[in-house]
Design goal:
single chain; alpha+beta; Adenine-n6-DNA-methyltransferase TaqI, Chain A, domain 2; four-stranded antiparallel beta sheet; 11 helices; 25 strands
Length: about 450
């Protein structure tokens, strides 16, 4: 869909707005919104600020996300009241803007509710105060913003806002509600496709490493409940007979340095599902020390995160590549290497199988931080085909998974483009760069 511009524009005098339609004006935000400083009412429900859902009851947030949030136990006298159509400045407003509240309730004093005074239709400002251009302007009010720093009312009032006729605010909001809903539906479809691709990936791996590639092969009972039947000629035994597992070395944190010319230390935080992530890296100034030789990782080695080894995407097991080296193994991560009768590539697919997860989960110990040991890994009972058949499975899975990965990457690119279009559309509409009046039926706008 192409959009027209307004008939005439004028300079707004505000950098983040640029030129605005000739009939628009600009006003200091403190004359349009005031900070709400009212103490929480007795019995007011607790609200949570969320970039994903807006300002919603804490109980609803917990139900949607399936996880707990930090509850206010002490200092309840410092809770502040929030009312419908307030907007809430949160600790993450420099990332996601202000959250529109639809409920009456209370919130932590760390949040700052602002309530409309005049020239404000909340349905319109719900889009404007979360638009990329506005967020960029809010971010520019301080040069000290970093994760965890709070944005306050003093930051909010530094960003002037446009004054737009109420009927036009409603028209723009209705248009954006309509168009973003369509884009969101397309994004949801693509996200469902990614889930299906992930499920297909797991199913392909699981079938290949537990049943093989020959559907006519005679089968036998493995004797393992999670495994079921396996090809008759496969060996079912503990991993220890085919692998060597090594826990990492307890490098002292006092020796951690930030020097990319030194050796990287592979920590648990660096091990993802089928990937190594070096976005949070520490280094070590390695001297000649024979004791450390065994902890040097090589391309092709498998590593397993021992703390919280399972996340919703799967088991935290990954392969070391040439780009990851030179690096050494830190404690709470294990290296697992195959012997001559078990390909490390095959072992990687075996450990990536959701069937293996079913075997793995009961073995984890610990409540707050589930973990597993190399001894437990060594004791896992697994099916091992002959070396030639391992090679065939590896070739098959490599081709199949490359195809699935290409489709996944293409889908992710589509999602990114849709999200970019959504953001650009909102920013253009709320700053008057496109004229959307009349594009939504009057009955719907009403």
């Amino acid at each position: 869909m192409s959009f027209t511009r307004y008939p005439a524009y004028k300079p707004s005098g505000v950098e983040w707005l640029g030129e605005v339609p000739e009939h628009w004006d600009v006003l200091q935000s403190r004359r349009m919104f005031k900070a709400r400083r009212e103490a929480a009412k007795e019995g007011a429900i607790m609200l949570t600020a969320s970039q994903k859902y807006g300002m919603i009851p804490q109980a609803e947030f917990v139900e949607r996300e399936g996880r707990r949030v930090v509850e206010v136990i002490q200092g309840k006298d410092n809770l502040i009241q929030v009312e419908p159509d307030d907007f809430v400045i949160s600790m993450r407003s420099f990332q996601g803007g202000l959250e529109w509240c639809r409920f009456s309730g209370s919130t932590s004093f760390h949040y700052v509710p602002v309530t409309p005074i005049k020239h404000v239709m909340p349905c319109f400002f719900a889009h404007l105060l979360k638009s990329d251009k506005y967020i960029s302007a809010l971010r520019s009010t301080t040069n000290l913003i970093r994760d965890g720093q709070e944005i306050r009312y003093s930051n909010f009032v530094q960003v002037p806002l446009p004054i737009i006729p109420v009927s036009e605010q409603i028209a723009i909001a209705t248009f954006l509600d309509h168009e973003t809903a369509k884009i969101d539906a397309l994004i949801a479809e693509q996200q469902r496709l990614i889930v299906l691709l992930q499920e297909k990936r797991q199913a392909v791996i699981s079938h290949a490493v537990t049943k093989g590639l020959n559907p006519e092969a005679p089968m036998k009972d493995s004797g393992v409940e999670w495994l079921g039947e396996v090809p008759e000629h496969w060996t079912v035994t503990q991993l220890r007979h085919f692998t060597r597992s090594l826990p990492g070395f307890a490098f002292s944190s006092e020796g951690f340095i930030q020097d990319e010319s030194k050796w990287k230390l592979l920590r648990g935080v660096n091990v993802g599902v089928s990937c190594i992530r070096w976005d949070d890296t520490v280094h070590w100034d390695r001297q000649v020390d024979d004791r450390l030789d065994q902890y040097v990782l090589s391309p092709g080695d498998l590593v397993v995160g021992l703390d919280r080894p399972m996340i919703k995407e799967g088991l935290r097991v990954a392969r070391i590549t040439q780009e990851d080296c030179p690096c050494m193994l830190l404690q709470r991560v294990a290296a697992v290497k195959g012997t001559k009768n078990l390909s490390t590539d095959y072992l990687f697919f075996l450990l990536s199988s959701p069937y293996f997860l079913a075997h793995f989960e009961p073995e984890t110990t610990g409540v707050s931080v589930p973990h597993i040991s190399t001894g437990q890994i060594d004791s896992f009972v697994v099916p091992i085909p002959p070396p030639q058949e391992q090679a065939e499975v590896i070739a098959f899975l490599s081709a199949e998974l490359n195809s699935i990965q290409r489709l996944t990457e293409e889908t992710l690119r589509t999602i990114a483009l849709l999200q970019e279009r959504r953001s650009a559309l909102i920013s253009a509409a709320v700053t008057g760069q496109i004229d959307v009046r009349g594009l939504v039926p009057e009955a719907e706008a009403a």
